Amino acid sequence: MAEAIRMPLLSDTMKEGVIAAWHKKVGDTIKSDDVLADVETDKATMEVTPYVDGTLLYIGVEQGKAAKVNDIIAIIGKPGEDYKSLLDAPASAPAAEAQPQEQAAPAQPATAPVAETPAPAPAAQPQQPLSGDATVIRMPLLSDTMTEGKIVAWNKKVGDIVKSDDSIADVETDKATMEVVPYVDGTLLYVGIPAGQAAKVNEIIAIIGKPGTDVAPYLAQDGAATAQPAAAPQQEAAPAATATPAPATTPATTEQPAASSDERLKASPLAKKLAEAKGVDLHLVKGSGDNGRIVKRDVDNYQPAAQPAVASVQPAATGAAKAPATVAQPVVTGQEGHVDHPLSQMRKVIARRLAESKFTAPHFYLRMTITMDNAIAARKAINEVSPVKVSFNDLIIKAVAMTLRKHPEVNSSWMGDFIRENQHIHVGTAVAVDEGLIVPVIKFADQKSLSQIAQEAGSLIDKARNKKLQPQEFTGNTFTISNLGMMDIDEFTAIINPPDSCILAIGKIEATPVVENNQVVIRQLLKLTMSCDHRVVDGAVGARFMQTLKAHLENPVTMLV
């Protein structure tokens, strides 16, 4: 079955993309994780991955030309397969609709009571997948480190009409919670992964097509289960839904009808996830967002009502009547207990990648103390004329970028059987978020002014904390810094962030007495520790880098020369 590869939506403002380069030509064998083409958007140049195996049958957009979002740019399938139906699908749609509609009436009652019809079904309807009646929606690759994504919420249900630019689901990756857009119009025929569960990259999560289209051939070709087992949970859900209102008259189940109204509940994906982790019923939380939408701060500030506490005190009070020795109550607080927190996608990747880094890259550490008196004075002067406030972190980013320009060996990556020396300088800054750690990247930092770095860093950090970062904003780093000085940390060592070969750990600036010219004076000192991958950077190379960095920070004017 041939698959149409469409121009993806690679940024929230993208309308079209220019094919910067094709990496494959018609007739080439394609793997699901191959890079098919480079697409230039309004934000960056990004890679297009097909997510399917096969042969490249058709290229619809020439290199250097643009295609609108959702336009067909290529078709992949079996060698010699007829793919013209995919290109002509809009023209042939009315004719194709007539036959399924006639067959849909007998098909619907037959599928429920008859369990022995799966055998003839695939034989009777093998043409439907080839006619373009349905499109498979797979778990997209939303970051360079993503291996699976968790469905935080489905924004559509089976049977709903879907537009090409609708958000059908919210997916939590290792970096952020992002929306899945189908890029096709139709009806949601199949949901493969329930909310709260994870799917591997390229796994089928949904199928969209014409009403009445049989999804079994699509699932069978992918090696998934047949359509009837997938439909069984839906059939079981119907009696479950009708059963819940019945006991609603009893006091014990009065909360169940509220739980069934999740579809009407207005809450952000992050608020829903946080509420689930804290065990908070969102129906009891008052939203402060637009139109009463519940956001993260509402869950953070939520205080449970007093009634449950009163109810829990009553048994204690009756027990106290029997045994007036209330002194024993504090012993209850000494009971052992624990809470198991499920791993988020971000935490899983942090654990995997940093463990790989620590146990495969031979780390060594270089420590240096910087006198920051001149940098403090320079920052004060800069902020008097800068349109945005420049922080010490921004100064260090600039200093690191200028130092990397003089020491390109540090701006390198270990690639297994060769070392890649990067000619561009992209500095990543580790940012702590609720779920873990993410590294927004200041690209071409050596070519930007301090005010540009400050403005971009502030915007990226804000996006990171609100889970709004786009993939191009947290990938491509060639060097990383991690700053804990604002948390009153003197110094620390950091684990290298692949594919970098070094990471710089920054402590706090502290007034310290030092001896100069046989006199004790007070200087503002900063302690830096650089972790180096010894496979790429030797001790002398790292030491020279630190010396140049020290010179830039102790005399910031040198960064302007």
TrEMBL record:
Alphabetical keyword list: Acyltransferase, Lipoyl, Pyruvate, Transferase
Classification via Gene3D superfamilies: 2.40.50.100, Chloramphenicol acetyltransferase-like domain (3.30.559.10), E3-binding domain (4.10.320.10)
Catalytic activity: N(6)-[(R)-dihydrolipoyl]-L-lysyl-[protein] + acetyl-CoA = N(6)-[(R)-S(8)-acetyldihydrolipoyl]-L-lysyl-[protein] + CoA
Domain of life: Bacteria
GO BP, sorted A to Z: pyruvate decarboxylation to acetyl-CoA
Stretches the record annotates as Disordered: 90-132, 226-268
Gene Ontology molecular-function annotations: dihydrolipoyllysine-residue acetyltransferase activity
Keyword Lyase: no
Residue ranges occupied by any Lipoyl-binding domain in the UniProt entry: 2-77, 134-209
Function: The pyruvate dehydrogenase complex catalyzes the overall conversion of pyruvate to acetyl-CoA and CO(2). It contains multiple copies of three enzymatic components: pyruvate dehydrogenase (E1), dihydrolipoamide acetyltransferase (E2) and lipoamide dehydrogenase (E3).
Similarity section: Belongs to the 2-oxoacid dehydrogenase family.
Record protein name field: Acetyltransferase component of pyruvate dehydrogenase complex
